[in-house]
Amino acid sequence: MEGLKPFSFVHIADIHLGYMQYNLAERREDFAKAFIEAVDKTIKLKPSFVLLAGDIFDSPRPSNQTLATAIRELRRLRDSGIRVFAVDGSHDLEPNIMTGTILIPLHNAGLISYLPRLEGGCWRDENCYIYGVQSSRSLREADEKIPEYMRRNPPKPNPNLFNIFVFHGALDNPKYVPPYLKPDLRMEYLPEGFNYYAGGHVHEPSIQKFKTGVLAYPGCLETTTYTEAEIQKGFYYVEVESPDSPPKIERIKIENTRRFVVEERDFSGLTPEKITLEASNQILKMDVEDAILVLLLKGELPPGFKKSQIDMPRIKASAKKALYTVVLNQMVESEQQKLPPKIRETRELKTVAYEYLLKMFREQKYPEEFCLRMAKTAIDILDPLLGGDEEKVKSMLEEAAKKR
Description:
alpha/beta, six-stranded mixed β-sheet, 19% strand
């Protein structure tokens, strides 16, 4: 404890270099730019070292262009006197276990220190002890290789040093990961005795107390899916004074990420033609220069209509400024589609009647909302009318009249 000197480090994860989201070369460049910005800011911070907690690449076989970007940026860190320690992520792993990971050539070239390749799976100096484990794609795979790996390379945290455990995975405890992520690492594989558990794989940034220290996920550097659009991208800068006191953790923002505009609309009760028109208008309102637009179509279609009748190309074509437009058709078809044939035939007659009544009301030049409501009411009263429920029929007609 007495000999420990204050130091700092940077913790980055989930860079996903080479990801051509939506098959766009522009998105591949966006992920490269985010990493370049992270390297620029890291060099200015002048940390003692950098931790890369997996998914450095989006594919275990990156293109020459992507590999060239990684080599150039890692060399900039090395030339600035900043050592890089890394573990692989699920995206960095080659499906063939004999081939290994793309990180091994980078390690052999002296651009990173791939922790599982170091003796004992670790590195230490007079200030800190860093231990790293391989990633897994499932709990089953983790159970097959992590215990054996840790048997061959037992972690040896030193209470007189600042101890860091580097990993990539979603823990099997919902307290520490979002519910939509499938666990691929058991919490028991993260041993006691460490001050900082440097995680990757979880794209939402978080810092929580964990065992003898803190568990940190810095999140991703760019948006890998529209559900991450509102999350501020960045990484952690960690300053250490002593192993006896909590480290100071600062979030460093990545500023120049691609803008996503995400909207969700409920189109329940509207015909496919009306949905196409309103969704196209919504896209026009969302349209922003060089942005990614994402519109989610929600709700239930009227009886007799199908999701496939919504003109998706027409909706997408409404955007004129955006880089790319995504329209997700999550409309639900009416339950009538699941009914037995005889019942379905009866319901199909109602559909024909609905379409006829709708056409009739429209020809009278009534407002569209009124036409839809009255046509639906006319059909809805058939069942209580045939069942002799006069009160129900009267109530439904009175309600429809009020809304006019």
